[in-house]
Design goal:
By secondary structure, this protein is mainly alpha-helical. About 55% of the residues lie in helices and about 5% in strands. The chain has two domains: about 35-230 and about 335-360, Orthogonal Bundle (Citrate Synthase, domain 1); about 235-330, Cytochrome P450-Terp, domain 2 (Cytochrome p450-Terp, domain 2, Orthogonal Bundle), CATH 1.10.230.10. One of its GO terms (cellular component) is cytosol. Keywords: Acyltransferase, Transferase.
């Protein structure tokens, strides 16, 4: 006897669809963690490479393990020569804020050039190798796309620079200051993973089919490109520009509420208290200092108060995107590269989720409830 399928809530809100050892977001507490460690504490005390290793292997590395891992990452961050023409074409076809589509194109080509294999046909070592290569190539590709669009030669990552420093170098051509490196590294670590968000879930669905790591990551990038997901940091800073032109952040916010417009950089699908990532980035912004930071802090206070008055039962606080844009702007990252910077970190989390999902041999295949016009009755089969 067939049973009726369960009806999931809109957006699958609060619906548990898998077990994971990677981490969790405890929204009511304003806390999230990677493995058994506080994500914010890792961001404050560890390097990006150490946390990347944690995602792949389940433990923080020893000094020797870290040295070996850094060497592997550097070796895999070099683009295969076969994709040079595709890289140039992808850069010239896309717009200034269209790096993610170019990333999908070049990653697909790089996957073919390096012989990436379906997860279904690979062992654990091969899957991990493919995952490291995809995450290592991502900043190289994004940096190259940006520089080609600017009429400059793409750069290769430097062995003497950390992952965070290399990212700033790849997009600017200059060796960054340690202050800027550490600020960006805090951001990168804090945004590696954040529960079963839309892009992570997309990656896991594709991985469940047995497809290769590149296919799963490219699907995640497509989901990530939306303005309600990874495409938000530059829009939040655009809102700050509007506020500066308007003059009064509280009145600006009230008008947004009255006109039922979403205020980018505020509110979160999971957190019902302050976003811990935003709190950390606000501290970092304060250390960097400057007029933009002062404006952001004042705007945050005014907007939070207006939203509290408009939605007393559903307080909305600044989320990670609000101060992410401020920190990146202070560190010289162009706005067109805000979302790509987010992708540089999140690809590590996607890959960890892909590897975890690949251990299951069952495809993710939910059902849908049909609500269209009644269909014709099925034809009866004669005896």
């Amino acid at each position: 006897m067939m049973t009726e399928p369960l009806i999931a809530p809109p957006g699958l809100h609060d619906l548990v669809v898998a077990d994971t050892e990677i981490g969790d977001v405890r929204g009511a507490e304003g806390f999230y963690h990677y493995r058994q460690y506080s994500a914010i504490e890792l961001a404050r005390t560890r390097s990006f490479e150490e946390v990347w290793f944690l995602f792949l292997y389940g433990h923080l590395p020893s000094a020797a393990e870290l040295d070996d891992f850094v060497e592997v990452v550097h070796r895999m961050s070099v683009l295969p020569p076969e994709v040079g023409g595709i890289l140039t074409a992808a850069a010239l076809l896309g717009g200034e804020r269209d790096s993610l589509s170019g990333l999908r194109t070049v990653l697909s080509a790089a996957g073919s050039a390096t012989g990436v294999r379906p997860l279904w046909d690979s062992d654990d070592e091969q899957r991990r190798t493919d995952a490291i290569r995809v995450a290592a190539l991502t900043p190289t590709i994004l940096g190259a796309l940006a520089r080609i669009r600017a009429g400059e030669e793409p750069l290769q990552p430097r062995r003497d620079l950390s992952a965070a420093a290399n990212w700033l170098y790849l997009i600017s051509g200059r060796e960054p200051t340690q202050e800027h490196v550490r600020a960006i590294e805090h951001y990168l670590i804090a945004t590696i993973d954040h529960g079963f968000n839309a892009s992570t879930f997309t990656a896991r669905v594709i991985a469940s089919t047995g497809a290769d790591v590149v296919a799963a990551v490219c699907g995640a990038i497509g989901s990530f490109s939306g303005p309600l997901h990874g495409g938000a940091p530059d829009r939040a800073l655009d809102a700050l520009d509007e506020i500066a032109a308007f003059g009064d952040p509280a009145e600006w916010a009230r008008r947004q509420v009255e006109e039922h417009r979403r205020i980018m950089g505020f509110g979160h699908a999971v957190y019902r208290t302050a976003d811990p990532r935003a709190m950390m980035l606000r501290d970092i912004a304060g250390e960097l200092g400057g007029p933009l930071v002062e404006q952001a802090i004042a705007a945050e206070a005014a907007i939070t108060e207006v939203l509290a008055q408009a939605h007393p039962d559903q307080p909305r606080y600044a989320n990670v995107e609000f101060y992410a844009g401020v920190v990146m702007e202070c560190c010289g990252v162009p706005r067109s590269m805000f979302t790509p910077t987010f992708a540089v970190s999140r690809v590590v989390g996607w890959c960890a989720n892909i590897l975890e999902q690949s251990r299951s041999r069952k495809i993710i295949r939910p059902a849908a409830r049909y609500v269209g016009p009644p269909p014709a009755a099925p034809a009866t089969v004669p005896d």
